Amino acid sequence: PPMIKLSDYQAPAFLVRHVDLKFCLHPTATRVFSRLECVPNTGKSAFLLNGEELQLISVEIDGKPLADDALILTETTLEIAADALPDGDFTLCCETEINPEGNTSLDGLYMSKGMYCTQCEAEGFRKITFFPDRPDIMATYSVRIESDEPVMLSNGNPTASGPGWAEWHDPWPKPSYLFALVAGNLVSYDDSFLTMSGREVGLKIYVRPGDKHRCEYAMDALKRSMRWDEQVYGREYDLDLFMIVAVDDFNMGAMENKGLNIFNSKYVLASAEIATDRDYELIEGIIAHEYFHNWTGNRITCRDWFQLCLKEGLTVYRDQQFSGDQRGHAVQRIDDVKMLRARQFREDAGPLAHPVRPEEYIEINNFYTATVYEKGAEVIGMLRTLVGAEAYERALTLYFQRHDGQACTIEDWIKVFEDVTGTDLAQFKRWYSQAGTPRISVKEDWDGNTYMLTLTQKTDPTPGQPDKQPLVIPVASGLLGSDGTELHSTEVLVLDKAEQTYRFEGLPEKPIPSLFRGFSAPVIVERKISNAERAFLLANDTDPFNKWEMGRAYALDLLSVLATDAESTIEPDFLNAMATLLEDQTLDPAFKALALSLPSIEDVMDAVRQGGGTPDPMACYDALSRLDTAMAGRMKGTIEQIYNALDNDGPYTPDPQAAGERSLRGRLLGLISRLEPNVETAMRHLAHADNMTDIMQALPLLIRAGRPEAKEALGSIYESWKHNDLVLDKWFAAQAMATPPEHAAEAVAQLTEHPDFHWKNPNRFRSVIGVFAMANVAGFHRADGAGYKLLTDWLIRLDPVNPQTTARLAGAFETWRNFDDGRQALMLGNMQRIADLKGLSKDTGEIIGRILE
Ligand code: DPP
Ligand code: ZN
């Protein structure tokens, strides 16, 4: 398959001003009639339309059929010869037939449990009709749907309807990837919103009958998002109606189609009994994310797919700001950084590393990555730190003013900041083009009066980028005195050379630095700190992020030793520091839960590698168990006391305060269970649970302990919830994740035999195969290769059905070079099995190809 390159971008030869679509829906033979109002753009040339898996019935220009020799039809394109086109504007009418039921890729128009729905980002519209399917073609759309389905929806405002038909009109020009259609037996949960200028907007969440009572939280999150975007960014909603539809078969989390967001049901439906606190938090964040796209993505879109971060980085940044405002910024920041490190740093350090704005791709769906999204958001956060909150606000106002209705580039985005601040951001812009995570080394000097801090930056080579340039790195720093007072409050140092020294004069004593406060840049700080200094900062830093960070660094230091020498002793100072933290009355429970948690097994494996070793996943797993057990032993009495005090008899509420208390209680339950071979506290926790959060805190502990009661609990949850897919997903995931690594592969293989393992459903596939490969790390990496074989067998089966989901999970092999020779050989052999497949999708082929390169 061809490599698409940013440097090859050419403006479209023709624009489309308006699109009329008529759908006669049928499960296996849907007719699509399109009428495109086309306008020449770059001079006389052939008109290239995309089209895949379409049956062409007829095509006409200005009402006249085209001669056969005026058309070239391939598997993926329809080309109309230049001399068959009139000079000036023309109308192109096309009739095609498609098969929604046969479309298992969940891209284009497909069916989910009898309901018609669409997914067009990035290139799904071409599976619906012939169209120049690229985001720089923005058109208004009028849509007519004909079918027997009770509900028929499309973008924009409803204009007319009758028995068996409905018409919609979207007045805002949009790219084809934002087109959506839904038809089925749905009910709506309704509300309304009064915008800042006093317009009333109807809000509707469409779900299947029976799910209506699970929409309240999503609706509340939507209204808070709408208000927040008005108050913080001055953005008002622009249609009479905003709709969300929940769909069970969906490749992504959700999709921001204009006026008609389509969501994976797991990010809409919530009630105490089916959703955990984490689910509520994700629903809130994703509802906000998709809603915020209305301005950052829809009104201002991307010129081409290389600019994906223009909408995604900014929209993630905005949803993180929103969630921080709703739930507290310290905890939000820690969660965001944990995720950034777990996914983006790992991506940046391996064969799939790519810049925030990639320069080439084979399949764009493979670039909906942590780098584009999460690092893209970090880059915006740094920009805001560097220019200041006030200039950021002016730049955004100018961005909306200048580019509304346009398809833009990162150059447009940067220019807005340059114009507002009068500074040259050429060097800053390297964050968009240079892949890899910078490593910062730190040197300190103290002469009795002046403290000198020397920072050096270095970025390792990444695929295709051997030489790296210095970046502009904001270093938010404070200095502490030995008694814990702040000698120098937070200041943003700008590191924009390979090495720089910063001087602080007139200090009474040699300070202790607190660097990269709030994680002010997505970098790896390589600073040798003693554990005594870590303990000091853990106790005294005024910056909550660094407070947490120091506990994490301390734990990682101990864990990497434990993972290489199981006999080594655990420093009591660490355990004492954790005990002090637990008892600290000034810390909020959600923060405490994070600070008392241990790093992930992958973090431990990375720490072992940084120390020059080759990590053994099982030894890392055991190291974590041992440290956890030691913490539990040290804090025994206090944990039980606080655990009991946190027992809340009131009804479940999903608010951040209650969720924070539950998360601390869950962490304490985990610790208590380390000391109880019969996990009796976890048993009681489960027996008393009246909500899914409590169930999912206790259940994995029973499964891990191998208790017969786990089987009973799983059986009774199954009996109560076998008709609820979201609960069943959790039921599968808990087993795939918590089964002890020694026999996880067998347990997961057995789960795939379960009659409810509907492997063509992405949520179900991910909750068994995905969770095993990504969240049962030691089990997946078992030395005999059973985990690799299991994943590979299933990827081979899924690829012809759903290439997008297959390619994504194939990323589980991205760290293969971090392991010992034996595991490397096993992973290589399995990847080779995939690479050798006849008819392998270009999605999976690209990912495996890049990992093997
Ligand atoms: N729906 C995906 C998102 O919102 C892709 N745009 O990020
Ligand atoms: Zn998005």
Describe the structure.
The chain has 853 residues and is α+β, with helices and mostly antiparallel strands. The chain has five domains: 4-185, Immunoglobulin-like (Sandwich); 301-433, Orthogonal Bundle (Neutral Protease, domain 2); 440-527, Aminopeptidase N, middle-beta domain (Immunoglobulin-like, Sandwich); 528-646, Zincin-like fold (Alpha Horseshoe), CATH 1.25.50.10; 722-853, Peptidase M1, alanyl aminopeptidase, C-terminal domain (Zincin-like fold, Alpha Horseshoe), CATH 1.25.50. Helix content is 42%, strand content 21%. It is built from 26 helices and 31 strands. It starts with a strand and ends with a helix. The model has no long low-confidence stretch (mean pLDDT 98). The chain binds diaminopropanoic acid and zinc ion. Residues 289, 293, 312, 315 line the site of zinc ion (ZN).
Note the topology.
Layout: E1 4-5, E2 14-24, E3 30-40, E4 47-50, E5 55-61, E6 64-65, E7 71-73, E8 77-80, E9 90-98, E10 108-112, E11 115-119, E12 139-146, E13 151-154, E14 157-162, E15 165-174, E16 181-184, E17 187-194, E18 200-207, H1 216-233, E19 241-247, E20 254-255, E21 260-264, H2 277-292, E22 301-302, H3 308-327, H4 329-348, E23 360-361, H5 370-387, H6 389-403, E24 407-408, H7 410-421, H8 430-433, E25 439-446, E26 451-458, E27 473-480, E28 486-495, E29 499-504, E30 512-514, E31 524-526, H9 531-540, H10 544-564, H11 572-583, H12 589-595, H13 601-610, H14 617-645, H15 656-674, H16 680-688, H17 692-705, H18 708-721, H19 725-738, H20 744-751, H21 762-775, H22 777-780, H23 786-798, H24 803-810, H25 821-835, H26 842-852
Parallel strand pairs: 2-12, 18-19, 19-21, 22-24, 25-31
Antiparallel strand pairs: 1-23, 2-3, 3-9, 4-8, 5-6, 5-9, 7-8, 10-11, 11-16, 12-15, 13-16, 14-15, 17-18, 20-21, 25-26, 26-29, 27-28, 27-30
Helix pairs in contact: 1-2, 2-3, 3-4, 3-5, 4-5, 5-6, 6-7, 9-10, 9-11, 10-13, 10-14, 11-14, 12-15, 13-14, 14-15, 15-16, 15-17, 16-17, 17-18, 17-19, 18-19, 19-20, 19-21, 21-23, 23-24, 23-25, 24-26, 25-26
